[in-house]
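re: that complex we talked abt at group meeting.

here r the seqs, copy pasted straight from the sheet so there may be weird spacing, ignore it
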Amino acid sequence: MHDGSGRIAVQNLTKQFGAVTAVQNLSFTVEPGSVTGFLGPNGAGKTTTLRMLLGLVTPTAGAATINGRPHHQLGNPARVVGAVLENEGFHPKRTARNHLRVYAAAIGVPDQRVDEMLGLVGLSPAADRKAGGFSLGMRQRLALATALLGDPQVLVLDEPSNGLDPEGIAWLRSFLRSFAQQGRTVLVSSHLLSEVEQTIDQVVIVSAGMTRYYGPLDQLRASQRSRVLVQPADANGLVTALQEAGLNQVEPTQDGRVAVSGATVQQIGDIAAKAGIAVYGMQEEKADLEQLFFQLTSPQYGAGATAYPQQQPYQQQQGWNAPPPGYQQPGQPPQQPYQQTPPPGFQQQPGQQPGQQQGWGGQQ
Amino acid sequence: MGNLIKAEIRKTLSTKSWWGLMIPAAVFAFLFALGWGAITNDLNDFLGSSDAEELAGLLGVQLGELPVGLLSLAHGINIGTMFPVIFGVFALAGEYSKKTITTTFLTAPNRMSALSAKMFTYIGWGVAYGILIVAFASLATVLTVDGPGLPTASQWLGVLGAGILATTLATLFGIGVGAVWNSVTGATITLTIWMLVVENVLVFVSFGWFGITWLGGVLPNGTLNGIVGAIGAEAFGAAGLSVPGELDEDLQWLLQYTAGAPGAFSWWAAALIFLAWTMLFFIGGWAANQRRDIT
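got the structure back, here u go
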């Protein structure tokens, strides 16, 4: 039997569909009591990984366990793990209540649980309507109700915000947080960091089937450092002056400016004034998480791969992974590590165009 | 397992496919039995041909006392049996096409238990189909066949038992084919064309051109039909252990064909061979499902 820990463990997981490697040597763990985001662009292998975790797809190599066991050894698995998956099927002619009654019987929970779950996800008024007429948002709610039928310890959600209206997303966020606060485990995938940023504590970032980062979101946040780009009359003079003032993270840039980390605009202005160097402009740059996410995931797309050759796939023995070294290397042209726009390849990925977003469906 | 069987029953009862297929099963069984009953009853009354006289003489019965009602029962049941096959295809292939298979596998201890629950539940459905189909075929037979041509009570019970066996195996056969080829449309169309057209043509051509009489006794549709049809054929002395040595082989085949079981060796041989076909697809589908990626 399983160990009841609520821990999800993915070890050296690999899946090949014919010649296509969907997931390559992926490893991470998800601890109970927190909401973990599983992030990566579309096609990064997130869905395949979650389906391997749930026993729906057989790994080519490696293992994915919940409570120390593969899904088919969990006993009554829906009591341990509930899943909201993309593309999940409902018989179009079956009502929401009947759908839940089928699986309540399979799990062995009393039928009253069906109405409780319908109420929880806000579908009570639509309980006797056929699922075929549901909007995407309502289908997501029904999928969540199904996942929660067995009162599971672990909840796995694949892009759950698709089709939810802003109110639904806010509700889902607070629900997932309170679920995790009960000491349970939540793993939620998304291709948009901003969508889950407010919900998650931990993050696993994958791209091209490999782990790029995993660890606390706060650590990722702390790793971003702002820097100031100064345009002085005398770049070399300013570098010398700043270094004499004890600032050693100072690099001239190729366009004649000076990039300074670890100092405020005021400090730099004071030092420049004391040294008698005219300053024509200062620009404070602060990379946000989203930009970091782009950089961590962009190698999947041709242009990014050449722009960030220094990024290495995650290796398990390193433990909590720091952001790739390239990110913090000073002296690079500003548009690389601190770019204002995503790498060119990123915008071409499927699913990013507004037209392909599932929209903010909500209830019909 | 009890939970999963309960879930399977709810699954079926909460959509319309079960009565959507039961109604045509009953209607077709009734109409085919009605038609064959009318034809063979006339045959019984008026046929004075030497073949029939010869046959009656061989069997030591009066021509008017041949249980022709078995022929209409067999034809009614045979056509009705198509529907539990299709119903069986829906059981698993339908879950793939509607993608409900994901939740089914997520809420079952493992795939084997999910499929076992389906198998047990559909045995029950197969029995229900059998009773329904035999009942409607019997009703049509009583309406069209005169008293002397009706089967004896024990023959009728035999038909009921064989009919239930046939529809139950037919349902499992459908599940098996749907499990191997998880497309409702593909499996249903292919099976329908195979069972109604292709196999009949094969059996006819091989008999007409090559004189092969046994082909219908080994192919899936022929053996499925033979479970009930051979009872009629045996009563006419055209199948089973009672085949008289003097009976011409061609006449024997024609009698079997009339009984709806060309080439059938006996009802139990037909049942065993069809069971083998069912197991072939069921085990194949079982193995395919253990490994199939649900994406």
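couple things i noticed - DSSP finds twelve helices and no strands in chain B. The first helix of chain B runs from residue 2 to 13.
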